[in-house]
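User: Before I run my own analysis I want an independent prediction to cross-check against. Here's the chain; please return only the structure tokens and, at the end, one sentence I can use as a sanity check.
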Amino acid sequence: MADPDEHAADLPECPAAQGGGGLLPAELRAWMLLVGATGAVEQQLRSVVKKRLDISHDEFLILCLLAEQPGAGLRMTRVAELLGRPKTRLTYQIACLQHAGLVTRKSVCGDKRGVEVALTDKARGLLTETSGALAETVTRALAQFVGPAQREAVCGLLPGLAGEMNAGEMGAEGMGAEGMNAVEMNAE
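Assistant: Structure tokens:
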């Protein structure tokens, strides 16, 4: 595996440390760094999700969102809002996930138009089985993207990442579900 410091010279300095020398304020520079890091994670995660789960990255985000709803589902309108998806696109993605046996759909009691989706036991099992490899992919992608100056800020967002980056080992055990979800929810 690549050393996280290997490409550090190619990475921009931490936006907070750059001062006001650029055209953009520090907040926008920081946002661009976050967008870039998110893109790096998504790029590597897409192939792992397809290989391990045989679903698209967007479908994976739906599963992650539903996985954070223990014992309950979410209305499709709420899923669309949280992921910033058009309802028509979400309907297609949910249909694909339902066909694969990963989600269930049911009408919401008292609302003829409301539809709730929830994970199946099959989906829960797949997520449990693959979460280590997926978390490792997120950790490795971030370690390759962020330089030493950005690590402290990123580590504040992702529990357990500091130890992983300092040890130079990108194991899955240091990445909690909160960290993976924080990265994924910012992905789109």
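Sanity check: The first strand starts at residue 74 and ends at 75.
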